[in-house]
Amino acid sequence: MPNSGPYTIAIDGPSGTGKSSTAKELAKRLHIDYLDTGAMYRCLSLKAKDTGIQPGDAERLAPLAATLEFLFPEPGTVILNGVDVSKAIRTPEVSGRVSVDCAIPAVREVLVDRQRAYGLGRSCVLDGRDIGTVVFPHARFKFYVDCDPRVRAKRRVAELAAMGHKADYDEVLSNLLERDHLDSTRAVGPLRRAADAIVIDTSDISFEQQVERILSVVRAGI
Ligand code: DC
After folding, report:
1. Who is most buried in 21, 85, 162, 205, counting CB within 10 A?
2. What's the pLDDT tens digit per position in 24-52?
3. pTM of whole model > 0.85?
4. Domains of the chain, with CATH numbers?
5. Which of 21, 98, 136 to mutate to test the pocket of ligand 1 (most atoms within 8 A of CB)?
6. 98 lines ligand 1 (CB under 6 A)
7. How far is the centre of ligand 1, averaged over its atoms, from the C-alpha of 196 (Å)?
8. End-to-end CA, the chain
């Protein structure tokens, strides 16, 4: 018999696989909440950059993480300490340091706690790297979204162009591979597939197909 009550959908995978867009769409269609956990780490890096904290400075970053006030009024909008930073957290400067900042164990401890608090008692979809393994290891639905790095790099160049940033494909690809490496080799909360996660490879399928595959699993289980 399908389960009732609040449920969690955990979506993990490397950057640029389309998991955030997929998660947003799922939240809309299922009428549940959405938390972009990567946005939290990006907010920390943005604030650190603006206050002159060096990338990876554990002593200053962990206390800073505890002071951040987040609001997510709607999917795609991030309010940090009362300011809309939705665009500012996606710049190359922030992307360039976030993998280093987010690898600090004390930083992860603070932000994972806040992600758990957000997801408690409500149906929601969260996307990140460690949602199905660390944040919500008992999530009712777990997906691992993967994609060929070359396809991801192409998509990223297009995304940056849409935001007015001109980017070189080779540079984007090498940054992406470096981030994958940092994200999957860190000591705490590394990117990896939970043993019970369903793998969705998005290299050759459309956005609509990605959404439909996940939706069909979730609808059958709720
Ligand atoms: O998904 P994204 O590119 O916005 O994530 C930004 C960074 O945060 C990226 O380096 C991976 C990291 N991250 C993480 O370590 N754990 C999460 N749950 C989400 C993101």
Report:
1. 85
2. 999 999 999 999 999 999 999 999 999 99
3. yes
4. 8-221 (3.40.50.300)
5. 98
6. yes
7. 21
8. 9
